[in-house]
Design brief:
By secondary structure, the protein is of the alpha/beta class. The chain has three helices and 22 strands. The strands form four sheets. Strands 6-9-12-15-18-21 form a six-stranded parallel beta sheet, covered by helices on one side. It is globular.
Length: 200
């Protein structure tokens, strides 16, 4: 067997939904992790065949089933929490396997739990017994400290920080530089402004 083919098949073939800035960042993190080979993107706003980071846009999101022979796993790399949840529901209905992408420069405690379909980006920190739900985003240099929880489809922007025991509700969004004090709970769908701090 060709040696190059052997190396390729040692990696999971990854389809990325979303070819915007976040999608490209996830693609890079996936490749740097050594666990994935990106086989293409799906995106409703770019034409099929457009080159993106050495791969191609294969078509719109709804064409996913047409490309099932090309990939082993799929991840939704779209920052909009509601849209990400909708597409994850479609993936699960089609019974495709979701990937979890962790940048090699992130620190993830061996006692942390990371839900399927999540992304943990460069320099992010997941502390002891932190928990991420399904389809969450922990962006660059964001911190989910010990015993903090990010519920399904929650999203931490760049440099956002959750102190120990805090909870970010389902589909909630902490924009860049925002912070939660110890034990603070943000309800489902909540949005923190850039730099906003919540103590109680």
């Amino acid at each position: 067997m060709d040696a190059c083919f052997t190396v390729w098949r040692d990696k999971s073939r990854l389809l990325i939904i979303g070819a915007g800035g976040h999608g490209r960042s996830v693609a890079e993190a996936a490749e740097l992790s050594g666990a994935f080979a990106v086989v293409g993107f799906l995106d409703d706003s770019l034409p099929a065949g457009e080159a993106v980071l050495g791969a191609s846009v294969l078509g719109p999101v709804l064409s996913m089933v047409n490309h099932c022979a090309l990939f082993d796993r799929v991840i939704v790399a779209i920052g909009n929490n509601r849209l990400r949840e909708t597409i994850v529901d479609q993936i699960e209905a089609a019974r495709f396997e979701m990937a979890t992408v962790i940048h090699p420069r992130a620190f993830v405690s061996p006692r942390a739990v990371v839900g399927k379909g999540s992304t943990v980006m460069a320099c992010a920190v997941l502390g002891t017994e932190a928990k991420l739900g399904v389809g969450t985003i922990v962006n660059c240099a964001a911190v989910v400290d010990h015993h903090a929880q990010v519920e399904d489809f929650g999203h931490l922007g760049v440099n956002a920080s959750m102190a120990g025991g805090s909870i970010l509700g389902r589909g909630a969004w902490m924009q860049a530089g925002s912070a939660l004090g110890y034990g603070v709970v943000i309800p489902a769908g909540g949005v923190l402004r850039p730099g906003e701090a919540v103590e109680h």
